[in-house]
UniProtKB/TrEMBL annotation:
In the C-terminal section; belongs to the class-I pyridoxal-phosphate-dependent aminotransferase family. GO terms for molecular function: transaminase activity. This is PLP-dependent aminotransferase family protein. The keyword Manganese does not apply. Pfam families: Aminotran_1_2 (PF00155), GntR (PF00392). The keyword Ribosomal protein does not apply. Residues 21-89 form the HTH gntR-type domain. Keywords: Aminotransferase, DNA-binding, Pyridoxal phosphate, Transcription, Transcription regulation, Transferase. Gene3D superfamilies: Type I PLP-dependent aspartate aminotransferase-like (Major domain), Winged helix-like DNA-binding domain superfamily/Winged helix DNA-binding domain.
């Protein structure tokens, strides 16, 4: 067995004196790592604590603490008048303990030792860039969020003794206080005649749709979506193994007659809609079509999954109430996000459904998000109760409306001969269709060279359509002007 002095401990034990982890524990963990990987096999004698402390330039008491930790965890044993030895199973062929630098004990395996199922359906579609200017999907500007005010709500709740008891408890049902105030808020703002018992609080719209699909969809079910639809939701449906059928969209939203024809041909399990601002075209589903879809749902028995995408952002007039507000037969499941205009950490998702379905969904939420975030939900509930949500939303809507109008003016002035668009009544993006043939991927690459990033998820191009979705929410006037200048210049060069 190798002599203790021949083992180059200092080459594989690295001490970080700036971290909060005690030095003795850092060393003990690295020695255990070496034992587990066979570099310090059964029977290896460790050097005396004085020698060990000199080798690593540590206090002898630290070395004693290291050996005590190894003994306490059952990795070593001390024999009177003989020393401290590694214990465990004897290896048939000890691992070489030369070249520790090349055989770094810190390297985690790059691959698994077993096979597993992979899926390209869930490949991340999002791109990132270092460009100074970005046209995104239509997200709020975090620079407008009153993070200090939001943080004060949360900090105040953390300091209350009455909340300290619940902060460490699991409660996937969510904060009852938040659900009470959110149900009232949704009743007043969206006409949903619900109570807290009809609410499930989730982390995001995607989590909501995942839970719904797990409970209500089976492989082979037919789900209707818009001919252009939200790609993240499509990924969830594809992973569930359903058959998706595209329904055409026009200036009044999804075409109801096409839905009817689909129902006549086969059994439809679900229709997924973003009726307030259809994703990605931003058109609103007309009131007449909403009533017709509710009637069709009752007639043919399909579920309507209503996603209130961008419901908070409307400018010119009051938005049409959701389908769920007029549903008397329990055919609509309403999902959405709350606080999208707030700082990212203060946003949450929710599901509205009849109580019998809600009880089943709580079981699934208890598996994937058992702990929840009771304190954050309490803060959001108080922001509703004190009117903070309404005050902030009213202020931010004015800014977003000005940005919408300014982007429309810039596009009209610089690209009127190349593109066509309608000023959206709400939301944070504009749907732009091209009048002339343009290679959108080439346009995106050219703009990137001029410091403007246009992600591929915003580009829609096939034989019948050449279009883009341009977000304006997080661009101020100066950023918008410079972005459109680059965009316009490159569009004219390749058109």
């Amino acid at each position: 067995m190798d002599s203790p002095v021949r083992i180059p401990y200092e080459s594989f034990i690295k001490i970080d004196r700036k971290t909060e982890t005690p030095i003795y524990l850092q060393i003990a963990n690295q020695l255990i790592n070496a034992i587990q990987r066979g570099f310090l096999p059964f029977g290896t004698k460790l050097p005396g604590t004085r020698t060990f402390s000199e080798m690593l330039d540590i206090h002898r008491n630290t070395a004693v603490a290291v050996y005590d930790e190894l003994s306490a965890q059952g990795w070593t044993e001390s024999l009177p008048n003989r020393g401290t030895f590694i214990i465990g199973k004897e290896q048939e062929k000890p691992v070489e303990i030369n070249n520790f630098e090349q055989k770094s004990l810190q390297n985690y395996p790059k691959t698994t030792g077993f096979s597993f199922k992979t899926s390209n359906i869930l490949d991340n579609p999002f791109e990132h860039s270092n460009c100074d200017y970005v046209f995104n999907d239509g997200v709020p500007d975090i620079r407008l969020t009153q993070i200090g005010q939001h943080s004060r709500f949360y900090s105040s709740i953390l300091k209350r003794k009455s909340n300290q008891k619940i902060s460490g408890h699991y409660n996937h049902d969510g904060s009852e206080f938040f659900k009470e105030h959110l149900s009232r808020y949704l009743n007043l703002s969206r006409g949903l005649p619900i109570s807290k018992n009809n609410l499930l609080i989730t982390r995001s719209t995607e989590m909501s749709i995942y839970i719904v699909s797990e409970i209500l969809l089976s492989a082979g079910d037919v789900v209707l979506v818009g001919a252009l639809s939200y790609f993240s939701v499509n990924m969830i449906f594809m992973k569930a193994g359903v058959q998706m059928v595209s329904i055409p969209i026009d200036e009044d939203g999804i075409i109801v007659e096409s839905v009817r024809e689909a129902c006549k041909k086969q059994k439809i399990r679900m229709l997924y809609l973003t009726p307030h601002h259809h994703y990605p075209t931003t058109v609103a589903l007309s009131a007449q079509r909403r009533f017709e879809l509710l009637e069709l749902s009752q007639e043919y028995g399909f579920i309507i999954l209503e996603d209130d995408y961008d419901y908070e952002f409307h400018y010119d007039k009051s938005p049409i109430l959701p389908l769920a507000s007029a549903d008397t037969s329990g055919m609509v499941i309403y999902i959405g996000s709350f606080g999208k205009s707030l700082a990212p950490g203060f946003r949450t998702g929710f599901i509205v459904a009849p109580e019998n379905l809600m009880s089943e969904m709580r079981k699934y939420l208890g598996i994937i998000d058992r702990q929840g975030d009771i304190l954050m939900e309490r803060a959001l509930g108080e922001m509703i109760a004190e009117g903070e949500i309404n005050r902030y939303l009213k202020k931010s809507l004015k800014v977003y409306q000005e940005r919408r109008d300014y982007l429309c003016t810039l596009l009209q002035d610089s690209l009127d001969d190349l593109v066509t668009f309608r000023k959206p009544s709400g939301g944070l993006a504009i749907w732009l269709e091209w009048k002339v043939p343009v290679n959108l991927m080439q346009l995106s690459r050219n703009c990137a060279r001029d410091n403007l990033f246009i992600p591929k998820t915003l580009l829609y191009q096939n034989k019948e359509l050449t279009a883009m979705r341009l977000g304006f929410g997080d661009l101020n006037a100066d950023e918008m002007q410079k972005s459109v200048e680059v965009f316009s210049k490159n569009a004219k060069l390749i058109s």
